[in-house]
Amino acid sequence: MLQPLEDHILIKPLMEETKTKSWIILPDSKEKPKKGEVVAIGSGRILDNGQRSPIDVKVGDMVYFTQYAPDEIEVDEGSEKVKYLVIKHSSLLAKE
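^ thats the sequence. predicted structure below, dont judge the formating
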């Protein structure tokens, strides 16, 4: 498994629903996901005093982020390629 460095966070993107609760099909959107599950976190950014800045999310949290903040990477896991997003802690907007 990948281990993010410093204040980076590894996120498994969640695709948005294509149907509403009343079964209305939404048009296909090619936009990047704006919500995902935290898979791994870095150890925090090094501050001027030499200590590490705490990261206030943990593995398993659902997080929201801006559309263009993450970088996408593909990782070979066994016989399949899995897409992950890498994002800086400061680019997160909220968590569930």
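The first strand starts at residue 8 and ends at 13.
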